[in-house]
From TrEMBL:
Source organism of this protein record: Actinomyces massiliensis F0489
Name of the encoding gene: recO
NCBIfam families registered for this protein in UniProt: reco
Keyword flag Ribosomal protein: no
The protein, known as: DNA repair protein RecO
GO cellular component, one term: bacterial nucleoid
Gene3D superfamilies xrefs: Nucleic acid-binding proteins, Recombination protein O, C-terminal domain
Recorded family membership: Belongs to the RecO family.
Function: Involved in DNA repair and RecF pathway recombination.
Pfam families with a match to the protein in the record: RecO_C, RecO_N
Length: 249
């Protein structure tokens, strides 16, 4: 049994009912990518760690490997983000979109390299912490997370130079399929006109420049959110269920 045990930090992404008393817990871990594991008896009122396995919670978890699903043996709360997130609808819907995105992007662990490269885990942890602690407007945190998570997955949006020819920007149009900003010479059908403030905001959200993002105008935030949503949907090849619930200005 000892050889099958392992321990890791994780963020709980989602839970599913299993049988009468168990749950399947979907987690994004620091060192093992996305893990699906059974929490036995967790739905009973006598469960020792039921409340520790709620979505958005950061945990220290010990598991042992099973044939089809791993089994949770022990869990401790490291950061109870769920308490601060679930009490505010706008924050909750943003967090829900984040964990749904993380689940989709890491389902094959193609963007992770176990202990050497836990970027998606660290990015999600930082974004949830920013939401829970109200560091920035929820919509800005969400859009920054989505752009950066897609970049880690290999789909970085160009927010300054032309995505097609590399011509130096800034440019006044954005084309989702082309990969971002496009110059006048490369502009394809379907590109949308983008205000200079919106393009600057997109670049700030991608780079984490909160000095620019926090003072951005509401009209620029609204246009940026629409572009980010379209960019996410294009690359995931379907619209996320939680994204439709997010309250936008």
């Amino acid at each position: 049994m000892t050889g099958r045990l392992y321990r890791d930090e994780a963020v709980v992404l989602r839970t599913y009912r299993l049988g009468e008393a168990d749950r399947i817990i979907v987690m994004l871990t620091r060192s093992h990518g996305q893990v699906r594991a059974v929490a036995k008896g967790v739905r009973r009122t006598t469960s020792r760690f039921g409340a520790r396995l709620e979505p958005f919670t950061m945990i220290d978890v010990q598991l042992y490997r099973g044939r089809s699903l791993d089994v949770i043996a022990q869990v401790e709360t490291l950061d109870p983000f769920a308490r601060a997130i679930t009490g505010d609808y706008s924050v909750f819907t943003c967090a829900s979109t984040m964990v749904e995105t993380a689940e989709r992007l890491t389902q094959d662990d193609g963007d992770l390299d176990t202990t050497e490269s836990p970027q998606q885990y660290l990015l999600l942890y930082g974004a949830l912490a920013a939401l829970a602690r109200r560091r920035h407007a929820p919509g800005l945190v969400l859009d920054s997370y989505l752009l950066r998570a897609l970049a880690l997955a290999g789909w970085a949006a160009s927010c300054y130079d032309c995505a097609r020819c590399g011509a130096s920007g800034p440019h006044a149009a954005f084309h989702v399929q082309a990969g971002g900003a496009v110059c006048a010479g490369c502009r394809p059908a379907g590109a949308v006109d983008v205000e200079p403030g919106t393009m600057a905001l997109l670049g700030a959200l991608l780079s984490g420049d909160w000095g620019v993002a926090d003072v951005s105008a509401e009209r620029d935030r609204a246009q940026a959110s629409g572009i980010v949503s379209a960019y996410l949907t294009w690359h995931l090849e379907r619209r996320l269920r939680s994204l439709s619930l997010v309250e936008r200005a």
